[in-house]
Specification:
Blueprint: H1 3-26, H2 30-37, H3 41-48, H4 58-68, H5 72-80, H6 97-122, H7 129-160
Helix pairs in contact: 1-4, 1-5, 2-3, 6-7
Amino acid sequence: MSTINRAASEEWFHRIKSATRDLVRLCGGVVRAGEITNTSKSEVSRWQSANDTDIIPISAVLALQAECGVPMITTVMADLEGRRLSDPESEGIAASTSCFRTHHAEFLRASADVSVATATALADGEVSAAEAEIVDRELADLERVVATKRQMLAGIKARTLRAVS
Protein backbone atom coordinates (compact mmCIF):
# COMPACT_ATOMS: atom_id res chain seq x y z
CA MET A 1 0.00 0.00 0.00
CA SER A 2 1.40 3.40 -0.90
CA THR A 3 2.08 6.03 1.75
CA ILE A 4 -0.75 8.20 0.44
CA ASN A 5 -3.24 5.33 0.52
CA ARG A 6 -2.07 4.28 3.98
CA ALA A 7 -2.46 7.85 5.28
CA ALA A 8 -5.94 8.12 3.78
CA SER A 9 -6.80 4.72 5.21
CA GLU A 10 -5.56 5.69 8.68
CA GLU A 11 -7.44 8.99 8.53
CA TRP A 12 -10.61 7.15 7.56
CA PHE A 13 -10.11 4.63 10.36
CA HIS A 14 -9.57 7.22 13.09
CA ARG A 15 -12.37 9.51 11.95
CA ILE A 16 -14.86 6.60 11.90
CA LYS A 17 -13.65 5.45 15.32
CA SER A 18 -14.00 8.98 16.71
CA ALA A 19 -17.50 9.38 15.26
CA THR A 20 -18.42 5.96 16.67
CA ARG A 21 -17.31 7.03 20.16
CA ASP A 22 -19.36 10.21 19.88
CA LEU A 23 -22.40 8.31 18.62
CA VAL A 24 -22.19 5.67 21.37
CA ARG A 25 -21.84 8.42 24.00
CA LEU A 26 -24.81 10.29 22.54
CA CYS A 27 -26.93 7.12 22.67
CA GLY A 28 -26.18 6.58 26.36
CA GLY A 29 -22.95 4.60 26.48
CA VAL A 30 -21.78 1.11 25.55
CA VAL A 31 -24.48 -0.77 27.47
CA ARG A 32 -27.35 1.21 25.93
CA ALA A 33 -25.77 1.11 22.45
CA GLY A 34 -25.46 -2.66 22.82
CA GLU A 35 -29.15 -2.90 23.68
CA ILE A 36 -30.11 -0.78 20.67
CA THR A 37 -27.95 -2.82 18.27
CA ASN A 38 -28.50 -6.24 19.91
CA THR A 39 -24.79 -6.66 20.54
CA SER A 40 -22.63 -7.00 23.63
CA LYS A 41 -21.07 -4.02 25.35
CA SER A 42 -17.68 -5.62 24.61
CA GLU A 43 -18.39 -5.54 20.90
CA VAL A 44 -19.54 -1.91 21.10
CA SER A 45 -16.33 -1.10 22.97
CA ARG A 46 -14.28 -2.66 20.16
CA TRP A 47 -16.11 -0.55 17.57
CA GLN A 48 -15.03 2.65 19.30
CA SER A 49 -11.52 1.68 20.38
CA ALA A 50 -8.70 3.07 18.23
CA ASN A 51 -6.65 0.06 19.37
CA ASP A 52 -9.07 -2.46 17.82
CA THR A 53 -9.55 -3.07 14.09
CA ASP A 54 -13.29 -3.83 14.38
CA ILE A 55 -15.40 -1.18 12.64
CA ILE A 56 -19.04 -0.57 13.46
CA PRO A 57 -21.31 -2.36 10.95
CA ILE A 58 -23.75 -0.34 8.84
CA SER A 59 -26.76 -1.97 10.53
CA ALA A 60 -25.51 -0.71 13.91
CA VAL A 61 -24.75 2.74 12.45
CA LEU A 62 -28.32 3.00 11.17
CA ALA A 63 -29.84 1.80 14.45
CA LEU A 64 -27.80 4.17 16.63
CA GLN A 65 -28.24 7.17 14.34
CA ALA A 66 -32.00 6.52 14.26
CA GLU A 67 -32.05 6.30 18.06
CA CYS A 68 -30.32 9.64 18.66
CA GLY A 69 -31.37 11.42 15.47
CA VAL A 70 -27.85 12.57 14.61
CA PRO A 71 -26.07 11.18 11.50
CA MET A 72 -22.58 11.26 13.05
CA ILE A 73 -20.97 8.44 11.10
CA THR A 74 -22.87 9.20 7.90
CA THR A 75 -21.58 12.77 8.12
CA VAL A 76 -17.98 11.55 8.44
CA MET A 77 -18.44 9.14 5.54
CA ALA A 78 -19.82 11.93 3.36
CA ASP A 79 -16.97 14.25 4.38
CA LEU A 80 -14.37 11.63 3.55
CA GLU A 81 -15.84 11.52 0.04
CA GLY A 82 -15.76 15.32 -0.25
CA ARG A 83 -19.52 15.61 0.25
CA ARG A 84 -21.72 17.31 2.81
CA LEU A 85 -25.07 16.24 4.19
CA SER A 86 -28.00 18.61 4.17
CA ASP A 87 -30.61 18.61 6.90
CA PRO A 88 -33.96 20.22 6.14
CA GLU A 89 -34.78 20.37 9.84
CA SER A 90 -31.58 22.24 10.69
CA GLU A 91 -32.54 24.97 8.26
CA GLY A 92 -35.32 25.80 10.69
CA ILE A 93 -32.97 26.32 13.65
CA ALA A 94 -34.04 29.35 15.61
CA ALA A 95 -31.26 31.84 15.08
CA SER A 96 -32.36 34.69 17.26
CA THR A 97 -29.73 37.05 18.59
CA SER A 98 -30.06 35.70 22.14
CA CYS A 99 -29.77 32.10 20.93
CA PHE A 100 -26.73 33.04 18.86
CA ARG A 101 -25.18 34.83 21.85
CA THR A 102 -25.77 31.80 24.09
CA HIS A 103 -24.27 29.46 21.52
CA HIS A 104 -21.21 31.68 21.19
CA ALA A 105 -20.34 30.84 24.80
CA GLU A 106 -20.43 27.15 23.86
CA PHE A 107 -18.14 27.89 20.91
CA LEU A 108 -15.64 29.69 23.18
CA ARG A 109 -15.69 26.80 25.67
CA ALA A 110 -15.06 24.22 22.93
CA SER A 111 -12.24 26.35 21.47
CA ALA A 112 -10.64 26.68 24.89
CA ASP A 113 -10.88 22.91 25.44
CA VAL A 114 -9.00 22.31 22.17
CA SER A 115 -6.34 24.83 23.20
CA VAL A 116 -5.88 23.27 26.65
CA ALA A 117 -5.67 19.73 25.23
CA THR A 118 -3.17 20.85 22.58
CA ALA A 119 -1.02 22.78 25.05
CA THR A 120 -0.99 19.81 27.42
CA ALA A 121 0.01 17.47 24.59
CA LEU A 122 2.82 19.78 23.48
CA ALA A 123 4.12 20.51 26.99
CA ASP A 124 6.90 17.91 26.89
CA GLY A 125 7.74 18.46 23.21
CA GLU A 126 6.30 15.07 22.16
CA VAL A 127 2.71 14.19 21.27
CA SER A 128 1.78 10.63 22.22
CA ALA A 129 -1.00 8.62 20.61
CA ALA A 130 -3.10 9.04 23.76
CA GLU A 131 -2.59 12.81 23.70
CA ALA A 132 -3.46 12.91 20.00
CA GLU A 133 -6.65 11.01 20.82
CA ILE A 134 -7.63 13.54 23.50
CA VAL A 135 -6.99 16.49 21.14
CA ASP A 136 -8.96 14.70 18.40
CA ARG A 137 -11.95 14.26 20.72
CA GLU A 138 -11.89 17.93 21.65
CA LEU A 139 -11.64 18.87 17.95
CA ALA A 140 -14.65 16.64 17.17
CA ASP A 141 -16.66 18.53 19.79
CA LEU A 142 -15.49 21.86 18.36
CA GLU A 143 -16.48 20.73 14.83
CA ARG A 144 -19.98 19.93 16.10
CA VAL A 145 -20.25 23.35 17.76
CA VAL A 146 -18.93 25.14 14.65
CA ALA A 147 -21.41 23.28 12.42
CA THR A 148 -24.29 24.40 14.62
CA LYS A 149 -22.98 27.96 14.66
CA ARG A 150 -22.76 27.99 10.85
CA GLN A 151 -26.33 26.70 10.60
CA MET A 152 -27.48 29.51 12.88
CA LEU A 153 -25.66 32.07 10.73
CA ALA A 154 -27.22 30.61 7.59
CA GLY A 155 -30.65 30.99 9.21
CA ILE A 156 -29.94 34.62 10.05
CA LYS A 157 -28.71 35.33 6.52
CA ALA A 158 -31.69 33.55 4.97
CA ARG A 159 -34.10 35.72 6.95
CA THR A 160 -32.31 38.98 6.18
CA LEU A 161 -31.11 38.42 2.61
CA ARG A 162 -34.06 38.20 0.25
CA ALA A 163 -33.99 38.16 -3.52
CA VAL A 164 -35.44 41.28 -5.06
CA SER A 165 -37.58 40.94 -8.15
